[in-house]
Structures are given as C-alpha cells and as structure tokens.
Specification:
By secondary structure, the chain is an all-alpha fold. It contains 15 helices and no strands. The protein has helices at 3-21, 31-49, 52-80, 102-122, 126-141, 145-154, 174-186, 190-200, 207-229, 253-300, 308-322, 327-357, 364-374, 380-393, 398-426. The longest helix is centred in the middle third of the chain and has 48 residues, at 253-300. The protein is globular.
C-alpha cells in the first residue's frame, strides 16, 4: 500500500461529505444505508482485488466475457465482412482489418448481448440472480424492496430494469424515485458494456473484469449516495419487503431471441442518434469557445485551446486527485472523466483507449481508476432518457420524476466517483489486476 491508496481511501469520505453538502435534508441521514452501501463496496472489492481466490474469479470472468464477445462478432463479420474485423485481425480469406470502426465492430455486440440477456430471462436464470442481490440490499440496508429490485436489476440491464417495479411506480416516494434514477445512471447495461470491452480489450486485457466489477460496486454506492442527497421522508409501501420482479415472459425461445435482438437494434439507434446530436453540439460549442479564447488569450497572456473538454477537465481535476490518480496523469484523466458528463461514456472510453494506445499515462493505476469512475450512464443526455423512460411508465408522477432528475444525476456521478475511490484504495502495486 502506498500514498495513492491512502488518498483514494480518504477520497471516499470527501465524496460522502460533498453529497451531504448538497443534501435536501442534512439532518435526516439513514446511516444504515450509508454504512452498508460503503461496506458492501469494500467487501466486494476486497474479495476481488486482495483475496487470491477473488482475483482468480475476476480473471476467469474476464476471459469468459472476452470469449463470448469474440463469438458475438461472428454475426457482424458475416454481415459486414472486412469492416467488422478488429484492429490487427485477419479473416480466414486473408483480408486485413481496416482499423477500429465503432458502427461495424462494437455496436453489433449490443444486438448479441441483448438477445443473450433475453434468453437468460426466458430460461428463468436471470430473475433468481436479481432477486438474490435485491434480498441482500433489502435486508442489510432496510430500504424498500422496489428500490432494491431496481438496483439489483441495473447491475445486469439498463433502463428496462424499471419495468420490474412497474406496478409500484405510482406509489413510490420522491426518495424512491430519485434512487431508481440514480441506480440506473450509476451503472451500465451488460449489452452496452460490450462496447467498452470491444473498444479497450486490445490495449487493456483485463478491461472486461474491471467493468463488470465496476457495475457491481456502483449499485450499493448509488443507493448510499441517493439516500444522502434525497433522504427518505415518508414510508415506502414496500419498505423491508422482498418483491418479485414484474416482467412478461416470451412465449417461445425464438420469440425471446427476436425480441432481444430487436431491443438491441432500438438501443443502437438511440445511441447513434445521441452521439451524432451531442458530439455535433459539443463541436459547435467548442467552435464558439475557441473563438472567444483566440480573442481573450492574447489580452491576458493565456495559453491553450478553449473547449468543453478543457473546461470540464479543470472542474474535475481536484476530484481526479481525490480518486488517487497520480498528479502526472491527473489532467489527462480529469478531462476524460469530465467529458463523460457532456458527451457520454462511450466517447470517454474511446478517448481512454486512445490515451492507452499512445502510452500517455505514466501510472497503470490511472487507467484502472478511470475505468471504474467512467462506468455509468451519469451524463446529461442519460438523465433525459431515464426521466423520460420512467415517466412513460408512471405518467401520473411526471412532476415528481422530473423534479428529482438532477439530484439523481448528481448522486449517480458521485456514486461512480466513489467506486473509483474504492478501486483506487485497494489496488496495490504489483497486483495482477493492475496491469494494462
């Protein structure tokens, strides 16, 4: 253990303090939720990062996910041919890859994983796993069963996890609504997670294991942060009660595949539209900022290009240091973490991959911490998607859902950063999980 581990550990308490400062009711803290939220994170991280058996499980999961991902690319190669070949890959006919192309190499994996998750639901494999996690959250934290179920579901799936508690949404308290939004934005869906693995596996061999660990760690973190920022002031209908997930099972195996694949296509369309719109708007804003900078820089002797990434980089720089990222890498990582808030985690992970390809980082722990801190849908566009999605399921609660949306985004952002701190506190020099 070195100084950076201690900095990461101290960052846990600083982030909790920041959440308390923006809390809607600083006198009403549920310490059971907070302590167990942090405790579960540390217990899980200790098993994965410190216990030898846990590290072996981590590596096995990583290898399995990578192999499944390789299988997922078979369909894309058949449909898109050479365009679907990963960088450096050669086809059976001798064709070489044209380099990384997000649309033809990473996006098709969403369709595959969506179909796979649908199959796991059809064969009743996924529901018991989700109920198991939900049971732990409910019993240890004494929160509502509906909140626990959404938090557990979000470890594996995305916004569709809210369907599991659809019958309870109309009667949820404002604190519960904030929690389900925060849990959704603090984690990532397994089908989207495949994009990040595909983008980074060539330069970060253990990325799959780290991303799965991050999604698992962020669920209890989101519960803790949301309850600090918007404490429970009412009595939830399902408080302390284990509820069963609500979902409509497909009539046949092939229907499960079809519905899962179609769901993946809809998600791809949404992601593509979001990236085109957001990145275009960011480019426009950067153009304006660049013009302002070219006028102001000579007057005051400033240097450097003005852009949203630069602005968010400076904003997140102190937080990045708190995560335990060494100062030599802090500005690079802070810009990547900061841009996630504006241009989504997909672009942020691509930039992280570019940084690793260019060997810019001086410390391996920097990339690992960034991986954990980025692993979540905690950005402005996602807030709109989650608020809109949940509002569609509970139209009578649109006002309350929209009213807690910003607080949920703050809670999700702090939860992701908290996960980065926990990872940074327990990753030691020489760990087999630290190497990239």
């Amino acid at each position: 253990m070195d100084i950076y581990n201690l900095v990461s550990f101290g960052g846990i308490f600083v982030l909790l303090g920041l959440a308390w400062l923006v809390s809607a009711d600083r006198k009403n803290m549920n310490w059971r939720v907070i302590l167990w939220g942090i405790g579960l994170q540390i217990i899980i991280a200790l098993f994965l990062f410190v216990v030898p058996a846990g590290s072996k499980v981590f590596l096995v999961v990583n290898d399995v996910v990578v192999e499944v991902l390789n299988s997922a690319s078979a369909g894309a190669k058949f449909v898109f041919g050479r365009l679907a070949l990963a960088p450096g890959e050669v086809s059976d006919t001798g064709e070489q890859s044209l380099g990384f192309i997000l649309a033809f190499q990473a996006f098709p994996t969403i369709i595959f994983f969506s179909a796979l998750i649908s199959i796991l639901y059809y064969f009743n494999i996924m529901p018991p796993v989700i109920r198991g996690f939900a049971y732990v959250f409910t019993k240890l934290m004494r929160i509502s069963g509906a909140e626990s179920l959404v938090a557990a579901s979000n470890i594996f799936v995305g916004i569709e996890s809210n369907l599991t508690v659809r019958p309870y949404l109309d009667k949820m308290t404002r604190s519960e609504l904030c929690t389900i939004l925060a849990c959704g934005m603090a984690t990532v869906a397994s089908n989207v997670l495949a994009i990040y693995v595909f983008s980074l596996k060539a330069v970060f061999p253990t990325i799959a294991g780290h991303l799965i660990s991050a999604s698992l760690l962020s669920a209890p973190a989101a519960l803790a942060m949301s309850k600090i920022i918007l404490p429970e002031a009412d009595h939830p209908k399902t408080l302390g009660i284990n509820v069963r997930p609500f979902y409509e099972k497909e009539k046949s195996f092939f229907e499960a595949i079809i519905n899962g694949a179609n769901s993946g296509v809809r998600m791809i369309v949404g992601i593509v539209a979001l990236l085109i719109a957001v990145l275009g708007l960011v480019a426009l804003v950067d153009l304006v900022l660049g013009g302002v900078g070219s006028w102001i820089n000579p007057l005051f002797g400033f240097e450097g290009q003005w852009s949203l990434k630069a602005v968010t980089g400076y904003i997140f720089y102190p937080v990045t240091l708190l995560l335990g990222v060494p100062p030599a890498d802090a500005m690079v990582i802070s810009r990547i973490i900061g841009e996630r808030t504006i241009v989504t985690e997909v672009a942020a992970y691509r930039d992280l991959a570019a940084v690793l390809e260019q060997n810019i980082l001086q410390h391996p722990r920097s990339a690992v911490i960034a991986t954990y801190a980025l692993c979540g849908f905690a950005h402005l566009a996602s807030m709109a998607i989650f608020v809109g999605g949940v509002s569609a399921l509970a139209p009578k609660r649109i006002g309350d859902i929209a009213g807690v949306g910003l607080r949920a985004l703050v809670a999700a952002t702090l939860a992701c950063l908290l996960t980065g701190c926990v990872a940074g506190a327990l990753l030691t020099e020489g760990s087999i999980l630290l190497g990239t």
